[in-house]
């Protein structure tokens, strides 16, 4: 029911709209709501909402158009456009190469040929990424053989050399156990 106090009508309307959100209502109910809202507007009990935060309530409908903007399908001038038979500036087609001398290949700078190669004097993370690149992702546990979520590469000797036979794939649990054995805790 609509309250008789004019100050409570706005509160009632706000709560009514919250109650009606997401609910299906009949056409009669919609018409009742519309008539009460329009009556409130006519009586001046509720102000119309504007899409602005200005105190005056002014709404500006300004459309910015720059004459320099190019519209879709618009051609600036026929002299600057492509003409039939036009050869582009770079005549090389995709997948085509000019000469093998100027072409960069990763094989030239791979491994020991790279100027930043440190050999066995490499850090922990760089060595593990080298193992990952060469052996791939660790997929099973060579110690327990159980199916787990996470597998890692474990260094067998504990010397962290660049020797791929010195690495084995283990699960995370076995990796912790292996390190405890290496430290002499277990």
Helix and strand arrangement:
Layout: H1 6-20, H2 27-43, H3 124-135, E1 151-155, E2 167-171, H4 172-183
Antiparallel strand pairs: 1-2
Description:
This protein has 186 residues and is mainly alpha-helical. Among the domains are: 38 residues; 67 residues, no CATH class. The protein is built from 4 helices and 2 strands; from the N terminus they run H-H-H-E-E-H. The protein has a two-stranded antiparallel ribbon with strand order 1-2. It is flat and about 90 Å long. The model has no long low-confidence stretch (mean pLDDT 79).
Q: Helical residue percent?
A: 25-40%
Radius of gyration: 37 Å
User: How are strands sequenced across the largest beta sheet?
Assistant: 1-2
Tell me the total number of β-strands.
Answer: 2
Features:
186 residues; 2 strands; 4 helices; mainly alpha; two-stranded antiparallel ribbon
Task: Describe what is shown at a glance.
The chain has helices at residues 6-20, 27-43, 124-135, 172-183, and strands at residues 151-155, 167-171. By secondary structure, it is mainly alpha-helical.
